[in-house]
Amino acid sequence: HAKGAGRNTWQFFTERMNESAARHFELESSLRVALAANQFELFYQPVIEAGTRRVHALEALLRWRRPGLGLVGPDEFIPILEESGMIIAVGEWVLRSACEQAVAWQRQGLPAVPVAVNLSGRQFAQRGLAGTVRRIVEETGIAPALLELEITETTLMQSGGHTLEVLEQINAMGVRLSIDDFGTGYSSLAYLKRFPVHKIKVDRAFVRELEASAEDRAIVAAVMALANSLQLSVVAEGVETEAQLQLLREHGCELAQGFLFARPLEAHQVPELLR
Ligand code: C2E
Ligand code: MG
Ligand code: MG
Ligand code: MG
After folding, report:
1. Is the CB of 216 under 6 A from ligand 1?
2. Candidates 35, 40, 61: which one to mutate for ligand 1, based on the most atoms within 8 Å of Cβ?
3. What separation in Å is there between the alpha carbon of 7 and the centre of ligand 3?
4. From 220's CA, which of 27, 108, 137, 171 has a CA 20 to 30 Å away?
5. Which residue's alpha carbon is at the smallest distance from atom 45 of ligand 1?
6. For 90-128, what is each residue's pLDDT tens digit?
7. What is the residue with the minimal CA distance to atom 23 of ligand 1?
8. How far, in Å, CA of 106 to CA of 120, rounded?
9. Alpha helices per DSSP H over the chain
10. What is the DSSP letter of 211?
């Protein structure tokens, strides 16, 4: 009997494996056509200056409008794009589209607001990244100071010896760099000093329980002290309540992003926000 049960469990297990492998394969092959079929879209979420409630920047967030299945968020497909290498082409599309969009808004007479673009580790590992950024900046005509690139702490730490060189080339163009999801990776404070970084985005894991957790408040206080001494700006991610915002401001954090202010918006909703 025990043997039978074991076999059933095994059968169940392999069926589930096949199912998930099949799903993965299906997802990957649908993604292969997504770029050419124009199924990717950028949403934009504002970073807000708490004091004035003005828009400090707009972060471009990738969405996949999958035929018949609706909108798919990046957590569901970015890993597959990375694994397959497709992230290089999609990432370039994201960068170009965000720059084109920012220029188009400015030409409509809207206030000039920096646009932030997320880069994956795979893009960063390419030697040609700085050249790609330069080419896209030139071709779209965006003012370099209006472009920010976000890289996670983990990406920064894992990328190879050419990291500093690439960051310095990008920095020399006048494009700004932010560290995303700060606090979730393995951070080396020495790197923060060495790399030409302008901004830290504190991960929402530290914002979520700010009211209840003295530890999280201590972490925010420490990040603020560090950022002040290195002259970096700080954005708090995932701010959902006025109470969280209040605590962040008490710690000197004046830039915030989160559902309290706005969810990621479709591009056509942005002009109204900027006016
Ligand atoms: P991220 O760069 O840290 O972006 C912030 C994420 O937090 C977004 O999720 C946003 O919708 C979500 N968020 C914002 N405010 C709140 C809030 O108040 N509460 C909660 N619970 N969530 C909030 P999204 O759009 O699903 O993106 C997830 C991640 O996917 C991003 O995290 C980023 O790492 C990655 N990603 C998005 N677009 C791109 C892209 O174009 N390229 C690459 N390589 N990665 C991207
Ligand atoms: Mg980001
Ligand atoms: Mg983040
Ligand atoms: Mg994130």
Report:
1. no
2. 61
3. 44
4. 171
5. 118
6. 999 999 999 999 999 999 999 999 999 999 989 988 879
7. 238
8. 27
9. 2-34, 74-84, 87-107, 121-124, 129-140, 153-158, 163-172, 189-194, 214-230, 242-250, 270-274
10. T
DSSP state of 39: -
Sign of CA dihedral 173, 174, 179, 180: negative
Residue 217 identity: R
The CA distance from 36 to 244, in Å, is 42
CA-based end-to-end distance of the chain: 71
CB count within 10 Å of CB 254 equals 18
Q: Whose CA is nearest to atom 22 of ligand 1?
A: 238
Measured from the Cβ of residue 186, the count of other Cβ atoms closer than 10 Å reads 8
ipTM: 0.98
> Which residue do the tokens 């409008």 mark?
65
139: CB partners within 8 A, 6+ apart: 96
3-state secondary structure of 6: helix
Going from the Cα of 272 to the center of ligand 2, the distance in angstroms, rounded, reads 23
pTM, two decimals, is 0.94
Helix, strand or coil, per DSSP, at residue 60: strand
Q: Are 54 and 112 in contact (CB under 8 A)?
A: no
